[in-house]
Amino acid sequence: MSVEQARRYCIDCFFGSRANINKLFAAARVSSRTLENDVNGIGITYTNGRQALAILLRRGNEYAQPIAQAIADQFGVPVTAIVAGELQSARPIPYVSRQRVRPAQGGVSIGHYMVTAGTLGCLVRDNEGHVYILSNNHVLANSNNARIGDPIYQPGPYDGGNPNDTIATLWTWTFLNPNGINYVDAALARPINIQDVSPDIFYIGKVRGVGMPTLSLHVKKSGRTTGLTRGVIVILRAYVKVNYLSLGHLTFDDQIVIQPGGFSKGGDSGSLVVDENNRAIGVLFAGSDIFSLANPINRVMQELNIASII
What we know:
This protein has helices at residues 3-15, 21-27, 35-38, 64-75, 137-140, 297-303, and strands at residues 39-47, 50-57, 79-83, 104-106, 109-112, 118-119, 122-126, 131-135, 151-153, 166-173, 181-182, 187-191, 197-201, 218-223, 227-243, 249-259, 272-275, 280-287, 292-296, 306-309.
C-alpha cells in the first residue's frame, strides 16, 4: 500500500463515512473513541528520510500512538502522530502598528471594510491583462459576507483604515463551503489606481514565477504582523479542519503545512509564501501556535483564473 492510499483511508475513517473506524480502533485494541474528536488533519510528511503518513491532533492523546501503529501495520507505511493545536483562519491579531503605504507592496496591512486586517499577498494578472490584489477570502471578502465592488482599505480597519484609505474594490473570491471540501481561501481586489500598488513584496522583493511545494522545502513570507519569517514545509496533501468562527469548522484538502509555529500569527493571513528563489509556493490562510497552513499557489491561480503573478 502507498502513503496516499493510507491518507485516503484515514480521511474516510475520521472525516468521511467512518465505515472503517471501528475496525481501526479494534485493530489498535483501543476501546475509547475519544481520539476521533481530537484528529483535525491527515497529510504526508517525512520520517527518517521516508514518506510517512501524518495524523494531526488538536491536543495530545494517549490513544494516538496505538492508532498510528495500527495504521502502520495495516498499510506497511510509517505513521506519525503530531500535535498541531487548534487550526484557525482568523487568529487574534496582536497590536502591531501598520501604516498606510503608497504604493502598497505585498506584506502590508489590508482588509475588507468590515473585517479587522490581513495581509496583501501580491499582485496578479488575468488573461486579459487586468491587475489585481491577491489575498484571502476572509481578508478581502469577509468570509463570503461581501459584494462585488465593496471597498478594500489599506491599511485594514484594525490598523486605522477608513474610507479615505480605500485602495481597491472587491472583484471575485472563492466560496468558503461549510458543507463540503474546500481547496482555496482566496480573493481578488481591483486597484482603483494602478499607481497605488507595487509588484514588490516587503523584505522579499520581486516574485520570480511559480514553484512547486515539496517536503523539506525552505520557504519565507512577509506578513502584516510578523514581517519576514522563514520556515520549512513539513506536510503536504494535508486534509484539515479549520476553525472559521461564524462559519464553523471548514474542511480543506491538499494543503501545505509549514513550521515553525512562529512562521505566522493573526493578521498574516493572505501572505504569499515563496521559496528561497522567490518563486510563489502558496497563500497563507490559517495556522496555530505550532503550524501554518497555505493553499498551493497552482490551485489558487486555477480557481481565480490568474494567468501570472507579477
